[in-house]
Design brief:
The chain is an alpha/beta fold. The protein is built from 17 helices and 11 strands. The structure holds pyridoxal-5'-phosphate.
């Protein structure tokens, strides 16, 4: 006898009806994104009060569940697709990628190895080849899509440690090391570098902070000095991390010079290009990335400046053998039997994960259907928007840039007239810091534009990153209008 129909297995007609309802919602939502409030006026308790917290032994059905998404989850979220979402490095997502994610989950391919997902693995390999070409790597390089930049940086540093430390870390662990292993990164490097060093047993203390110049780029003289000092102290320098687009200011380290130093001292060179890497597509920024192809590894985040929805990061290794020595490991139950080289390929040799979702589909489908030129245009326009903001600030009486706009990042602050009249002097600087802190919080709550913050040489800065293909020059003007409007409600007496 057949079991009764299960709610886990809807009929094709039900699937069609659910899909239409969800897609109708997605279309309406994206169609009106410009008009919605960017940030909800809510708190944790009121969100929880609108979501049932009882373990649902009996389901309430798809329609009511979708209604909860439409009425509660969607509206009580930060609207990352909004054209004035300038906080952090937050991409808007793409409609095509959202549809691709639906198809990827429907197929439910598990991209461990070729034999488990033949066509899906080929799609990811082709997509990785495209990313290599964008960055200037040969197709012989290796790589894998990962959850994001933090995982990409972690994977790169694991490969660096395995390759450049004399002890076989993968086999014998840190106990076989007699010397401290040192990494070099600027004070502006993303915190995922130090976090990876802590997890990998290198230790945060041995991530040497290299000084930066006035443009927040690594100072090669200090880099060389610190490597020599560590060598003289009997430590083991293994890796230098350059940033191609730092998270706070968008600075690109002098990649070619750093590559030369890495060669001279036999260091692994890793480039964190998670934010900036795809700006190599923009004609105005391309030359800033000269030297990136000399790196041993490059971390990229398609879920940043290729606008994809999270989570889609990527790590590329110039020499795939280095990745295999780090991550390759065959248990009896995963061993390949009688496969040709191409079909014996396994992604588990290139990163920490075994089961992996079909991330590549969203990226492949978007690039295949839209084409790279549309991305190059959108990225260039984001850079133009950041420059427009800079010009507006420079022409104003009440704002000032805190460092020149780089790529699509801008750091600036508001100068309340009452405090501006009293400049310069340290106590006033602190009051301006406090005013801007309050201004940031008030702007975020206001919901028309969204910025995040940074600290530059001890000063609080309003920081924005234009990383949305919907953003226009007019949005940059509205951002300043919003700040001025919100500032009138903040007292200068602190
Ligand atoms: C330069 C840089 N590297 C790494 C990361 C970490 O990326 P993810 O959030 O995808 O882990 C970020 C995040 O903003 C970043 O800007």
């Amino acid at each position: 006898m057949n079991p009764p129909p299960s709610p886990l297995d809807p009929t094709p007609d039900e699937i069609r009806r659910w899909g239409r309802a969800a897609i109708d919602h997605a279309a309406e939502y994206l169609g009106s994104i410009r008009d919605c409030s960017l940030y909800p006026d809510t708190d944790a308790a009121s969100i929880r009060s609108r979501l049932s917290q009882d373990l649902p032994h009996d389901g309430i059905g798809f329609d009511r569940t979708l209604e909860t998404f439409r009425e509660v989850i969607g509206p009580l979220s930060r609207q990352n697709a909004h054209p004035r979402m300038f906080g952090y490095v937050q991409a808007p997502g793409l409609a095509i990628a959202a549809i691709a994610d639906l198809l990827a989950s429907t197929l439910n391919a598990n991209l461990t190895a070729w034999r488990s997902a033949p066509a899906a693995v080929e799609v990811e390999r082709i997509t990785l080849d495209w990313l290599k070409e964008i960055i200037g790597f040969d197709r012989s390089a290796g790589g894998v899509l990962v959850s994001g930049g933090s995982m990409a940086n972690f994977s790169a540093l694991a490969a660096a440690r395995q390759t450049k430390a004399p002890a076989d870390f993968a086999e014998r662990g840190a106990s076989s090391l007699t010397r401290a292993v040192c990494l070099y990164a600027s004070s502006q490097a993303h915190h995922s570098i130090s976090k990876a060093a802590a997890i990998l047993g290198i230790g945060r203390k041995f991530v040497r902070q290299i000084q930066v110049d006035s443009n927040y780029r690594i100072d090669p003289v200090d880099l060389r000095k610190q490597i020599e000092r560590d060598r003289a102290a009997g430590h083991l320098p293994v890796c230098v991390v350059a940033s191609a687009g730092t998270v706070v200011t968008g600075a690109i380290d002098p990649l070619a010079e750093i590559a030369e130093i890495a060669r001279e001292f036999d260091l692994w060179m890793h480039v964190d290009a998670c934010y900036g890497g795809f700006a190599r597509l923009a004609p105005s920024a391309r030359s800033l990335f000269d030297g990136i192809a000399q790196a041993d590894s490059v971390a990229l985040d398609p879920h940043k400046w290729l606008y994809l929805p999270v989570s889609c990061g990527c790590i590329l290794y110039r020499d795939p053998a280095a990745a295999r020595a780090t991550f390759g490991y065959a248990a009896d139950y995963t061993r390949m039997i009688a496969e040709e080289a191409d079909e014996a390929f396994a992604f588990w040799d290139y990163g920490p994960e075994l089961s992996r979702r079909f991330r590549a589909l969203a990226l492949w489908m978007t690039l295949q259907s839209v084409g790279l030129n549309a991305f190059a245009d959108a990225i260039e326009h984001n850079i133009v928007c950041a420059q427009h903001l800079e010009q507006l600030v420079q022409a104003s009486e009440d704002f000032e840039m805190m460092t020149p706009a780089r790529l699509s990042i801008f750091c600036f602050r508001y100068l309340p007239p009452a405090l501006k009249a009293r400049r310069p002097g340290e106590p006033v600087e602190q009051e301006i810091d406090r005013f801007n802190e309050q201004l940031l919080v008030a702007l975020q709550r206001d919901g028309s534009s969204y910025l995040s913050n940074g600290d530059l040489r001890g000063r609080f800065v309003l920081r924005g990153c234009a990383i949305n293909y919907r953003t226009t020059k007019r949005d940059m003007e509205i951002l300043l209008e919003d700040l001025r409007r919100v500032a009138t409600h903040i007292s200068t007496v602190t």
